[in-house]
Amino acid sequence: MTQPLLSIRNLTIDYIGETTDFRAVDDVSFDVAHGEIFGLAGESGCGKSTIAFAISRLHRPPALIRSGRILLEGRDVLDLDPRELRHFRWREVAMVFQSAMNSLNPVLRIEAQFYDVLHTHQGMNRKQARERTAEMLRLVDIQPDRMRDYPHQFSGGMRQRIVIAICLALNPKIVVMDEPTTALDVVVQREILQRINELRKTFGFSVLFITHDLGLMVQVCDRIGIMLAGKLVEQNTAQKIYGAPQHDYTRNLWASFPSLHGARVTEIAAT
Amino acid sequence: MGLVPVIARGQSDGDRSHMTDPCNAILALDRISKTFGRAPFAVKAAQSVSFALHPGRTLALVGESGSGKTTCARLVMREYTPSEGRLLFKGKPVETGDARALAAYRRSVQMIFQDPFSSLNPAHTIAYHLRRPLQLHRRDLKGRQIDEAVADLLTKVQLDPALVAPKHPHELSGGQRQRVNIARTLAVGAEVIVADEPTSMLDVSVRLGVLNLLNEMKRDMKLALLYITHDIATARYVAEDIIVMYAGQIVEWGNVNKVIDNPQHPYTRLLLSAVPDPEIRFDDPRAQLKNATVGEVRRLSAIPQERIVAIESDHFVRQIAA
Ligand SMILES: Nc1ncnc2c1ncn2[C@@H]1O[C@H](COP(=O)(O)OP(=O)(O)OP(=O)(O)O)[C@@H](O)[C@H]1O
Ligand SMILES: Nc1ncnc2c1ncn2[C@@H]1O[C@H](COP(=O)(O)OP(=O)(O)OP(=O)(O)O)[C@@H](O)[C@H]1O
Ligand SMILES: [Mg+2]
Ligand SMILES: [Mg+2]
């Protein structure tokens, strides 16, 4: 088997408390292949975001990585020194959050926000950055001439697409997306994720995708890991997670979904 | 049919006389518009929106992000004043000068917020959160009766009073907190509950419990519910009637089953086609939204239109611009 792009090995993360520590991630291991979309699902508080932050080396105290390794193409992300880390973020790993659309700087034109990233990380001048910005905006279906606009002139869905475009501008190897479309309507959600799916085929990057919506996760991901209280209890192809879930917890997650065209489940008692 | 709308069967063409079924509606929006900002930057967040809420029924409000759903909720809560149109409570406009009527309105119309974590005060127990509104709104209750009423409310929302009443909010899960929020609306004596994405921050495993609870309250206590969501499957699950909004306008409305099974407006069709479905993978051509089509649907749906077509007596669609 070829080497995976990302390999998480026995990762254990605690939140350090005054009296006791809280184990948020408990001995988790999984791989993400080149060009693969891997999903992490599970209840609120099961440790998904904690893993996402650790992979991007964005975890902050009180989070403490107790043990384990995070290997990107064989190199341990946890060993990077500050200089290597600057290169690593954006160019190797990029991250999109649920509220990313609100993370754009409101007083800067879109153009300037691209320039910041492209200049800092690739030394581009204004003209080069403008060309790259136009190219990236086109990829996410936004008119390049709108790079002169400010964030508030775009809808939430458009802003979220702009953030994704900025993330992809440096050709990262993996994009970590933590609930990237949760606050958006399903049409905008579909547009964004469909685009990501096409782009990863064109450019070959991998995606770690986190969402509460299991149905969506099965549609988008190649493989899925199910987490419960810090542990990865099941991982399999998306089809198997949907069609033949092994763990009771996974089966329960499916049972708690009303479906659009299924029978009306009004009569079911509270679970 | 105790539905919303606006226009009798077969009638059309921007009829100005359309009524909002005032007979048994507890609350109605009558051609309400809300504009933010000034031209040329004005945002028409709601354009001539009419709907009615009825005791024992749930109306679901779905649609594009930014289409005006929360604006409608805030209009109902009287947090926004309409730029045009009237808000009717039990058939009458709410007079701003009438303090008693306003107080009655505030008591009757309650909101459940998306974030169950921020809506409770971390310094107080759950019992306190329920006792306060009871003391304010149920003056008839004295001493022990109040504690009994608190226990009764917690039982109604399926929480164990002995266990939960002495706790502080941080000791409860998200689903439990949302139940406390529902109990609090009942403590006040709510007749109308506005729930803006009440379960989107909850786990899938507890969502259903909260939705079932809302269903039961609606049925047993004859509450009128306005349920705002991006999750159309749950809208079908809890609501009898549904409204689909796009760019400030209601584009389609009616019986929830008829609208979902027989969508007429291009935006409704687009919205339903994009609902996540684990049976269809994104690589499947059937899952692909075509940019050109989506763009055209958006363009056409955004054009203000007055003509309304009655598909059935309880299913209406705004005619699309030619
Ligand atoms: N700064 C912190 N200090 C202490 N505990 C924390 C901190 N951040 C997170 N936790 C705890 O760690 C656990 C894992 O949190 P995490 O944010 O990774 O969950 P998640 O799976 O992303 O949940 P959600 O689906 O709600 O986003 C939770 O129980 C949470 O309460
Ligand atoms: N206080 C305000 N001032 C200015 N514009 C506003 C205000 N509130 C809402 N808007 C604008 O009105 C429109 C409707 O917003 P609203 O919040 O009602 O949408 P929504 O349907 O609830 O969206 P979402 O599904 O994203 O919650 C948007 O374009 C929004 O930017
Ligand atoms: Mg998270
Ligand atoms: Mg809203």
TrEMBL record, chain A:
Q: Where in the cell is it found?
A: Cell inner membrane
Lineage top rank: taxon: Bacteria
Q: Where would I find the ABC transporter domain in this sequence? A: 8-254
In the UniProt record, the signal sequence range is: none
Keyword Transport part of the UniProt annotation: yes
A Pfam family annotated for this UniProt entry: ABC_tran
Q: Which GO terms describe its cellular component?
A: plasma membrane
Mind listing the GO molecular function terms for this protein? ATP binding; ATP hydrolysis activity
Q: How does it sit in the membrane?
A: Peripheral membrane protein
Per the UniProt entry, what is one GO biological process? transmembrane transport
Q: Which UniProt keywords apply?
A: ATP-binding, Cell inner membrane, Cell membrane, Membrane, Nucleotide-binding, Translocase, Transport
Tell me its family.
Answer: Belongs to the ABC transporter superfamily.
Q: What is this protein called?
A: Sugar ABC transporter ATP-binding protein
| Species this protein is from | Phyllobacterium sophorae
Q: What is the lineage of its organism?
A: Bacteria, Pseudomonadati, Pseudomonadota, Alphaproteobacteria, Hyphomicrobiales
